[in-house]
Design brief:
The complex is a heterodimer of chains A (261) and B (396). Chain A has 261 residues and is of the alpha/beta class. Chain A is 31% helix and 23% strand. The longest helix of chain A is centred in the last third of the chain and has 16 residues. With 396 residues, chain B is mostly helical. Chain B contains 16 helices and two strands. The chains are: A alpha/beta (261), B mainly alpha (396).
């Protein structure tokens, strides 16, 4: 892994995206290294979700470049992003409420029998293992996910990243709707994935999340980057200053290299 | 209750289907008591073949509604395709097979056009197909300049049923037993795969009871149809051809819904279109395919219809969109999307036809019949809303 640490896992360079006349993301560069958590912060409308949606393939990128594992990557749709090993956990969780947990885990990437039909039993078997690993108490996996609790729904969304062996992971406000116990579960999971060498972009408003989990942080305001720093080198007040006033920290240097190891 | 439901592995949907089947039984008993001749082989033979055209289209439009779309143009498109098939045969002397394929081709082009507008341009399907409802009724008129096109090909006329268009008793039993074997095989293979994967099985007795029930209904139907004999013919009628076609359509669509990616995507799109996009489902392509699938079913329905009437007229299928949508909704397809079953559309089509036929036998006039069927539609939706609330299915 140490050799890999020299090279970013995902490298977004000069990303630009406009909706009508609004520059939602304007010349933003940010990268994540293997085994690293990079927090992306900013107000609502700062452009962080749009930036991440370009990486996830939900919005096509207007200009700029995304490199994955050193290679320029063409991401036109969510399937492209998934093929590159990038998984996304959306704030809305992106679950089809009328389908059960197993169907949701495999949604868009169903396992098939050799006749091209759905292999429900193989999917259920695999799903049980993944769900059990994430939450041993999660048993009612064959009911529509609309009847599950917030934490269980989160488990289903996260299980996609775990089952499909994400190399890079985007988490959009993963703890926003969760209770303390479920938040702890998500934190544990982030640390586990990090230890396994997954690079994680964490979009969050929550300072304890950011300072508890991230190695570096990147603050955005009005579609532009304010600054990128090692989390350990800045204070909460400085981060808030960047988010609210767009005030760059000059006390320490910005950091564009891996903060891990 | 919840525990029992768990052990038996039945869902709220299965329960609703059983309730609807119960409604059908109650209706037929009530009509039998009121008229004395509702539950005769002759009447049931007619009901079965009259339900087929609506049922074939309802099965497909159910999926369109599941995907949060609607198609108001099915009646008009069926008119266009029906007239075209008849016109090619009568006015141009084409054989019925190429005529039918030409009809299918045109139907697919229409489906492509409306599906593309809906899926790729994002025009609401309500508007697209409302336009289609008017335009294609016009096209049906234009094709033959409003003149009725009789069809005479003896083979083609078999498609639509009627007095000659049925399987006869022997073939009916062969087909009936084949379908029964398929149901049995389905049960056995499902159990075997569940066991292989190490999942808890349904109690075997319950599984046998359930499959046995379906087989009993199936064979009971065959027996009933084989009991219908006309004075003028040497052997009994057996299953009408349109019903066989309907059965094949229902089986194929049920397979598509339950066993293929496409079917799962249709439900995912209906449940949460945004999520479907985000997880990488090709939503537009699935939607377009769905409209093409409906086109195929409309073509089949047009063939059955023209054959039944012995002619293609420009009024063919007028108002059918309402019956088809009503059948799907009565059958438990939620207009909010994401929920519905193919079997439900079958029961919905039958409920409408039972009402039509029963009220007709009771000498209820057309005006009252329309009032009653309209209100039954509302009762069905009210029941649907209450049922979903009770079983905890949220309404969007």
């Amino acid at each position: 892994m140490s050799a890999n640490n020299k090279e970013p896992l995902v490298d977004i360079r000069g990303a630009f995206k406009a909706f009508g006349g609004v520059r939602a993301v304007d010349d933003v560069s940010v990268c994540v290294y293997p085994g690293e958590v990079v927090a992306v912060l900013g107000h609502n409308g700062a452009g962080k979700s749009t930036l991440m949606k370009m990486l996830a393939g939900a919005y096509p990128i207007d200009s700029g470049e995304i490199r994955v594992g050193g290679q320029p990557a063409k991401i036109n749709n969510p399937a492209d992003s998934q093929h590159l090993g990038i998984e996304t956990i959306y704030q809305t969780l992106a679950l089809a409420d009328n389908l059960d947990s197993v169907a949701n885990l495999f949604l868009g990437r169903e396992l098939q029998t050799r006749w091209g039909t759905l292999d429900d039993y193989a999917m259920e078997k695999a799903a049980r293992e993944v769900f059990h690993r994430l939450n041993p108490n999660f048993k009612n996996i064959r009911v529509p996910v609309r009847s599950l609790s917030g934490g269980q729904r989160q488990v289903v969304a996260i299980s996609r990243a775990v089952y499909f062996n994400a190399k890079a992971l985007i988490m959009d406000e993963p703890c926003a709707a969760l209770g303390p116990e479920e938040t702890r579960m998500v934190h544990d999971l982030v640390r586990k994935l990090k230890a396994a060498g997954v690079g994680i972009f964490l979009i969050s408003h929550d300072m304890p999340d950011v300072f508890g989990l991230s190695d570096r942080l990147c603050v955005m305001k009005n579609g532009k980057t304010v600054g990128t720093y090692k989390t350990a080198e800045v204070t909460e007040d400085e981060v808030l200053g960047m988010i609210i006033a767009g005030k760059k920290v000059t006390r320490v240097a910005e950091s564009f290299e891996s903060a891990v190891g | 209750m919840a525990n029992l439901q768990n052990t038996l592995q039945i869902s709220a949907l299965d329960l609703r289907l059983s309730i609807m089947a119960g409604v059908l039984v109650v209706m037929s008993l009530a009509f039998q008591m009121a008229t004395g001749n509702f539950l005769t082989p002759e009447n049931l033979y007619n009901i079965a073949q009259q339900s087929a055209v609506v049922g074939i289209v309802a099965a497909a439009i159910g999926l369109i509604i599941v995907a949060r779309q609607i198609d108001l143009s099915v009646g008009s498109v069926m008119g266009t395709i029906g007239v075209l098939i008849a016109w090619l045969q009568y006015s141009h002397g084409w054989h019925w097979i190429p005529s039918s394929f030409a009809g299918l081709a045109v139907a697919l082009v229409i489906g492509m056009y409306q599906g593309w507008l809906t899926a790729y341009l994002g025009v609401p399907s309500f508007v697209v197909t409302l336009g289609g409802l008017m335009s294609f009724r016009g096209v049906a008129f234009l094709i033959s300049d409003g003149r009725t096109q009789p069809v005479t090909d003896a083979t083609f006329l078999l498609v639509g049923g009627g007095l000659d268009g049925s399987l006869g008793p022997t073939l009916s039993w062969v087909v009936g037993l084949a379908f029964a074997a398929l149901l049995l095989w389905n049960m056995v293979s499902r159990r075997r795969r569940a066991a292989a994967a190490g999942f808890p099985l349904r109690p075997i007795g319950f599984d046998i009871l359930l499959t046995g029930f379906f087989i009993a209904v199936l064979l009971g139907f065959v027996a009933l149809m084989s009991a219908y004999k006309l004075e003028s013919k040497p052997s009994a009628q057996g299953v009408p051809n349109p019903v066989l076609i309907w059965g094949a359509v229902v089986m194929s669509l049920a397979f598509v819904v339950n066993r293929t990616r496409f079917g799962r995507y249709v439900f995912a799109i209906g449940g949460n279109p945004e999520a479907a996009l985000l997880v990488g489902i090709p939503v537009k392509k699935v939607m377009l395919k769905l409209f093409l699938l409906l086109s195929v079913m409309v073509t089949i329905a047009a063939m059955v219809s023209v054959s039944r009437l012995n002619a293609g007229t420009n009024s063919l299928g007028t108002g059918m969109e309402l019956y088809v949508i009503a059948a799907a909704v009565i059958g438990g397809v939620a207009l909010a999307g994401g929920s519905g079953t193919v079997l439900g559309t079958v029961l919905g089509s039958l409920i409408i036809q039972f009402l039509e036929s029963g009220l007709l036998l009771m000498d209820v006039g057309i005006g009252y019949r329309m009032v009653i069927i309209g209100q039954v539609l509302i009762v069905a939706v009210v029941f649907d809303v209450l049922y979903r609330r009770a079983t905890g299915e949220r309404l969007t």
